[in-house]
């Protein structure tokens, strides 16, 4: 029964059908403003491939752009930014993260945060201790519903 809760078939330890349908695309690049257009292009491709409409694709591009911009502003010089896109039947989940010597998150009262909450079905930000480092991993997680943005 434990395997079922973990998303595995109870009989063979194989991944469940939903896990097989889910796909993750990951991009790592310098946490610099000049790199954000690459993430925006990848977001467009991933969301279009998930069969979203033109308005939803534009919204996803703007949301990813804003999430990246907020984290680039907080990242330490020379750090890497990682962007993960997980496509599943329930929608597209996007996580953008970087490392910083502080635990400060983007303000949820800023105009940029308002943009994020308008464009995505769900938005959250976290700061956790970075493994093997004195810094913190800063993350913004976005959820886009199936085929449309809010």
TrEMBL record:
The keyword Iron-sulfur does not apply. GO terms for molecular function: ATP binding. It holds the Pfam family HATPase_c_2. This is ATP-binding protein. Residues 29-127 form the Histidine kinase/HSP90-like ATPase domain. The keyword Nucleotide-binding applies. It comes from the Bacteria. Keywords: ATP-binding, Kinase, Nucleotide-binding, Serine/threonine-protein kinase, Transferase. PANTHER family: ANTI-SIGMA-F FACTOR RSBW (PTHR35526:SF3), ANTI-SIGMA-F FACTOR RSBW-RELATED (PTHR35526). Coiled coil: none annotated.
């Amino acid at each position: 029964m434990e395997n079922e809760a973990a998303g595995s078939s109870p009989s063979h330890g194989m991944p469940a059908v939903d896990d097989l349908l889910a796909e993750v695309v990951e991009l790592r690049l310098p946490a610099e403003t000049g790199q954000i257009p690459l993430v925006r292009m990848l977001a467009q491709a991933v969301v279009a491939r998930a069969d979203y409409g033109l308005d939803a694709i534009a919204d996803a591009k703007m949301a990813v752009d804003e999430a990246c911009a907020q984290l680039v502003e907080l990242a330490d010089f020379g750090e890497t930014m990682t962007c993960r896109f997980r496509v599943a039947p329930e929608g597209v989940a996007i996580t953008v993260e970087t490392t910083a010597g502080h635990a400060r998150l983007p303000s949820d009262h800023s105009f940029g945060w308002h943009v994020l909450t308008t464009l995505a079905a769900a938005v959250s930000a976290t700061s956790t201790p970075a493994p093997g480092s004195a810094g913190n991993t800063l993350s913004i997680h976005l959820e886009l519903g199936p085929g449309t943005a809010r």
